[in-house]
Amino acid sequence: MQTPVTIIGAGLGGLTLARVLHVHGIPAAVYEAESSPSARTQGGMLDIHDYNGQLALQAAGLMDEFHAIVLEGRQAMRVLDRDGTVLLDKADDGTGGRPEVQRGDLRQILLDSLPDGTVRWGHRAGSTRALGGGRHEVTFADGSTVATSLLVGADGAWSRVRPLLSTAIPEYAGTSVVETYLFDADTRHPAAAKTVGGGSMIVPAPGKEIFAHRESGDTLHIYVGLSKPQDWFADIDFTDAAAATARIAQEFGGWAPELAALITDGDTAPVLRPHYALPAGHRWDRVPGVTLLGDAAHLATPNGEGANLAMLDGAELGKALAAHPDDVEAALTEYEQAMFPRSTEAAAEGTHLIELLFGDDVPHSLIAAFIEEGQTL
């Protein structure tokens, strides 16, 4: 089976690319490992920035649909000290440039904007190989294959397409988060709900942090961050939810009870999310007929830019292909030459954010940065 554009991965970046191509009348097929759109939950909240993610949605012609899923008030942000003292309390006045949406809702409007059959579910990429002449073949886990003259790896951190371009492998970035949820928080966890407030809350300390988001309804999504080696986490049995929770909570001894409760009162088992990153400034030489976007191209420590960059990558690649219909290589060159410095700059900002969150001078250094830059997480 052959298609003009073959996209591996139906995340936000791959779907944005498919949508922008569709807007310009260019057919594409998206191959996704998951069995259906509802095969798994799609993560938590995303702040979609007016300087990258929203530009991608404009190119996709989906701004009305985007505005319809924005959760009002969620740009509010609080920074607390570990004793519960509120150090910074920024209200959401509706003028911020980073409105919050649920990742699953954003993915759904992209899916709904594509022709039926664009996404081929249940196709987990196993390997890729060059066929010569700028053509490539993808072999899926079920043994089926697809050959294409334009292959785009939008398949995340552990991309199966990346080896066609680069030998780089993501490495552990030195921090991890443990994730849990509090449901019906206003009635079942009122102290925690009051502490978090109407948007996001962060409590940074040297080597550790608690970050919380108020999602749709009164669900609180909790991320407990620790700067620890992987071996430290390997000694925790995360199949024993109570024991794992107790071990993580032990790192926050002496913190205010309402903050500790964000860890100990979770309604879901704790899930470990290690942070990985590709080498700083990751790039590759131009290889005919193939490119990467999003985490497949520039995985970095979390800084609020990953999803936004993936969407902008998809939009910019789609626009470049539409602008050069008879010269794919010119389009790919144009796209990569802009994407490389853009992603390198964002990765550097992510490294700086980690220093602000986990460094010895928090929370004061973080608050100073917010006041200086007028930012929210």
Automatic annotation (TrEMBL):
Residues 3-342 form the FAD-binding domain. It catalyses: a tetracycline + NADPH + O2 + H(+) = an 11a-hydroxytetracycline + NADP(+) + H2O. Pfam families: FAD_binding_3. It is found in: Cytoplasm. Signal peptide: none annotated. Its cofactor is FAD. NADPH binds at R40. Keywords: Cytoplasm, FAD, Flavoprotein, Monooxygenase, NADP, Nucleotide-binding, Oxidoreductase. Its EC number is 1.14.13.-. It is an enzyme of class 1 (oxidoreductase). FAD binds at D47, R103, D295. InterPro entries: FAD-bd, FAD/NAD-bd_sf, TetX_monooxygenase. An FAD-requiring monooxygenase active on some tetracycline antibiotic derivatives, which leads to their inactivation. Hydroxylates carbon 11a of tetracycline and some analogs. Belongs to the aromatic-ring hydroxylase family. TetX subfamily. Consists of an N-terminal FAD-binding domain with a Rossman fold and a C-terminal substrate-binding domain. Monomer. This is Flavin-dependent monooxygenase. It comes from Streptomyces aureoversilis. The lineage of its organism: Bacteria, Bacillati, Actinomycetota, Actinomycetes, Kitasatosporales.
